[in-house]
């Protein structure tokens, strides 16, 4: 879903330097779409436009306060980010950004005709061993931007890119900077919706701070079992946090709704990436969503699992045991023997997802009562809305 890989500051410019390509391809032919009336909007005004100036200044003060004792994600480091950093390694005055560009790799209702104005933040509060963007998320490649500089980029995306929305990707650890940037951008003339594109490892405090500023929440509900989140995401209590967060997101913006052009304007779009051998967890997630969020929830069951980061890499051999010849621990011995046999790390998830695994999650979703899926209608190649 995130095709941009250039990890340099130059990449920030790449998406907007050549606006003429947009003129060469003006409007794609109208798609055949059918929007259920309950989710069709006559018109839409982004929520940040409706915020009073009193509420806006309250949010500004709260954003600064949170940075002084950071509890903005479930890690709850409690640090003053003006003086030091917590687990996410990002300070207070800027956010690190890897790429800003109109993006056509999102769901059709998000990318629309001109693309989604995506801002890919560097750093992350999770450490997924299969991360496809680990150069951005774990190594924090990118450029530091103040909230005001971010706001200027949102305006460029709107004006030059003619994008349908501002899509904040992996923003969980920079929520105060994001809030300040949206408030600055609305004063500068931003008039398109804001998307909060998250792993769902958010705290309720940060979601309250975002209330009234975000139009579309795009959470990825990743895994179901605590043992899995501990092993693969390096996070405790991921599932409980995701449940609480998704319910709060749905309380704020409801089910996904569209204007008549098929572009999503407000609501929750829930993603779940099916992982090899973990279709049972996917089925549990679908059941829980139907029973505890909404059977009208718009769901994208994703099949494009393609591991990177640590998955499939050779197991490591410690330098100490090699150079000193000292007796090795059991783990080190296992690593040595694995190296010899070509064994790799996280071998159980080092493969593509099979059709039967994918279908099993889809069937469970339908059985649970979910019915709004982001998938191609095979009869007319259109997308269900
Ligand atoms: S946002 Fe960063 S500093 Fe704040 S609690 Fe999370 S990991 Fe810690």
TrEMBL record:
Q: Does Zinc show up as a keyword for this record?
A: no
Q: Which GO terms describe its molecular function?
A: catalytic activity; iron-sulfur cluster binding; metal ion binding
**Which superkingdom heads the taxonomic lineage of this protein's source?**
Eukaryota
Comment on bound cofactor: Binds 1 [4Fe-4S] cluster. The cluster is coordinated with 3 cysteines and an exchangeable S-adenosyl-L-methionine.
Which region ranges are annotated with the description Disordered?
310-342
Instruction: Kindly list the cofactors needed.
Output: [4Fe-4S] cluster
SUPFAM superfamilies attached to this UniProt entry: Radical SAM enzymes (SSF102114)
UniProtKB keywords: Iron, Iron-sulfur, Metal-binding, S-adenosyl-L-methionine
Instruction: Report residues binding [4Fe-4S] cluster.
Output: 124, 128, 131
Species annotation? Penicillium diatomitis
Alphabetized InterPro entries for the sequence? Aldolase_TIM, MJ0674-like, Pyrv-formate_lyase-activ_prd, rSAM, rSAM_sf
Name any one Pfam family assigned in the record.
Answer: Radical_SAM
Question: What is this protein called in UniProt?
Answer: Radical SAM core domain-containing protein
**Domain Radical SAM core: residue ranges:** 119-253
